[in-house]
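JOB MANIFEST
job_type = single_chain_structure
chain_count = 1
residues = 321
[input]
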Amino acid sequence: MAVLTTDGAAPAGDGPAGHRVLLVARAAELDAVLASRRVAAHLGGLRPVTAAAVGPAAPPGHRGAPVEVALVCDDTTATAHLVNRGIPVVHLRSGHRLEPAADAAPAGALHRVHRPGWLPGPWSPAGEARATGALAPARPARHRTRSGTLLLLSLWDAPAPRADVYAAAVLRPLVCAAVRRTGGCEVVTDARTGAVRDALGGLAGVQIDEIADPDVDPDALHARADVFLASPTLGAVTLAQARRAPLVFLPPLGAAQQDLAERVARAAPVPVATDPDDPAPWTPSASPAADPWHDLDPAADDLRGAQRVARTLRQLCLAPL
């Protein structure tokens, strides 16, 4: 089995030495990191290995832990490199795309697509891709005592000038309202972090984190937050659905976010925060009838997407392609 260059750290987990899984996610995309972590939570006895480099830039002669299979979230270059080295790869497209064919897995990889079963189509052809269902968090419970606002912001793939304007003109007023009405706001972003910090600079009660930081756990932050605002992304939608929690979308940034928000709206009444002075987003109803996910039940099996992907990885370890 090929030996991959790793970051030199000892692999996490308690699995057998021969059953290691390489995890690669596009660090600049919120959905990719969330998908990788949610699948990793279900690997059981397998040992996850993170790689500092999987391409030609890896230091020659540096030998890390041998791996038997890899999960790659969205990074087609990494998938092609690993396939060429003879390593079985599950390539997972984590986010919503308008042109999925352009983001297809390279030949030789198993292609999976994060897609809740209830999400309305139509869908463009995606080659041999198989829908996973919803990649839900491993722990569905929320804390009984919650406070503050969690804001998941995805600026991935947005042109820099547009993302910078969005951060200043759209994000800052909403964060100010979140602090004023809920006492604090934790912002987790995937790209253009500098612009986000510039836009929110000087605001008391605001914490800004990057999704690429392994110590930042949006699923755990959500469990402690009272209000949830998020860019229209699949990772945010499945988080709220799994916990039957209120969700308010940020105004969409880009055509893909707009398309996803429109599809979700056809199945569940998720509001969009367009007015910072509107009290509705900050006072979610406690009534079960107001649960936006109420009409999607029964859909328990659809929430097991992460388990399905993890099961495929285990099968590949035992019977590689």
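[summary]
Confidence is low (pLDDT under 50) at residues 1-17, 53-63.
The chain has eight helices and eleven strands.
exit_status = 0
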